[in-house]
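In the design runs reported in the main text, the only information available to the sequence generator was the tokenized backbone. The following block is the verbatim input for one such run; it is reproduced so that readers can re-run the procedure and compare outputs position by position.
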């Protein structure tokens, strides 16, 4: 079922969902099931599976030169989605990225998703490869999420890249995009970032999932700005509790967000990592209650392979 229909059917009640990473190469699907099993009692209508771009492993020679020695790819997001749908009978939402795909490969991936009965995709530009300092588009692929989105919209209208696709049925994907309440880090300012967000919505996006944030006022301001500018699709808050003191530094660095002073001071005052986790979970419970009061359609958790903090938060919220 489409995410927009799940939200409509909930009639204003806030839903719960989460996302996970595809397994690391060499690991079995059981690791994924171990993350999902403890969260199934909360009836998530959908589960997202991220997509990690291929990467290279380098060897440094004594002369300082770097040699590319290996190409690393995670097992398929598509296969992980199929396994989830088969076992749990919930909608799996694959993330689809520009990086690492030519347009043909994108189209083939979407045809596979349609064949599997997947109704939703979250379209993204994708992160830079770890071995690159910034995002490098794949030759023959898309450079921005808006281009990828347009590709999916075209397929929904029966317009494929090549004539040989004549016999292919129209797709009917419900399309999600990313939004950044605190702006995307490459954007010079909030206004420019917002202009590109609006471009994606006007091109046919059906829902937005936000980057994580720790200040509900930022989500509220983002939603208000969207509504004032004619963006009326659901805006799903992306959430992750702080669970270690190191994240006070790593989350702002990696995700380019602010941690409110009250939260950072509470974490710095903790005597142990166990206390840090408790503070992070408590903060997120309050944050979720405030989001429900604001009418957030879904509380969407970035589990990062660890279901326990999310489970405790949901128990504390609902
Ligand atoms: P875009 O919308 O393309 O925007 C990228 C930047 O370019 C922004 O600064 C934007 O303002 C600017 N921009 C947009 N269009 C144009 C244009 N036409 N001309 C000039 N500038 C433009 N990454 C992964 O690799 N895999 C995942 O599974 C994944 N899942 C995510 C899920 C969520 C909910 C979120 C919020 C992020 C996720 N990411 C993932 C990270 C995401 O890919 C990065 O944040 C990436 O840097 C930007 O992706 P985007 O889709 O927002 O890009």
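Verbatim output:
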């Amino acid at each position: 079922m489409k995410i927009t229909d799940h939200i409509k059917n909930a009639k204003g009640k806030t839903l719960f969902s989460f996302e996970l990473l595809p397994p690391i190469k060499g690991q079995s699907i059981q690791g994924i099931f171990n993350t999902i099993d403890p969260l199934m009692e909360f009836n998530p209508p959908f589960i997202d599976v991220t997509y990690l771009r291929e990467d290279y492993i380098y060897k440094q020679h004594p002369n300082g030169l770097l040699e590319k020695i290996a190409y690393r790819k995670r097992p398929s997001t598509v296969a992980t989605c199929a396994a989830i749908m088969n076992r749990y009978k919930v909608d799996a939402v694959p993330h689809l990225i520009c990086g690492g795909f030519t347009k043909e490969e994108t189209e083939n991936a979407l045809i596979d998703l349609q064949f599997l009965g997947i109704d939703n995709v979250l379209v993204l530009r994708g992160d830079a490869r770890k071995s690159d300092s910034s995002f490098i588009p794949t030759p023959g692929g898309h450079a921005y999420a808006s281009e990828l989105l347009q590709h999916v919209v075209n397929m929904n209208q029966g317009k494929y890249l090549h004539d040989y696709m004549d016999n292919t049925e129209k797709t009917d994907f419900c399309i999600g995009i990313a939004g950044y309440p605190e702006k995307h880090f490459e954007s010079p300012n909030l206004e420019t970032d917002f202009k590109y967000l609006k471009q994606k919505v006007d091109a046919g996006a059906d829902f937005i999932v936000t980057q994580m944030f720790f200040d509900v006022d930022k989500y509220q301001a983002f939603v208000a700005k969207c509504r004032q500018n004619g963006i009326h699709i659901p805006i799903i808050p992306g959430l992750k509790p702080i669970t270690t003191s190191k994240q006070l530094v790593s989350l702002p660095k990696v995700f380019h967000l602010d941690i409110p002073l009250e939260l950072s001071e509470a974490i710095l005052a903790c005597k142990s990592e166990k206390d840090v986790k408790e503070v992070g979970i408590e903060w997120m419970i309050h944050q979720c209650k405030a989001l429900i009061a604001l009418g957030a359609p879904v509380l969407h958790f970035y589990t990062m392979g660890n279901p326990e903090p999310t489970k405790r938060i949901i128990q504390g919220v609902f």
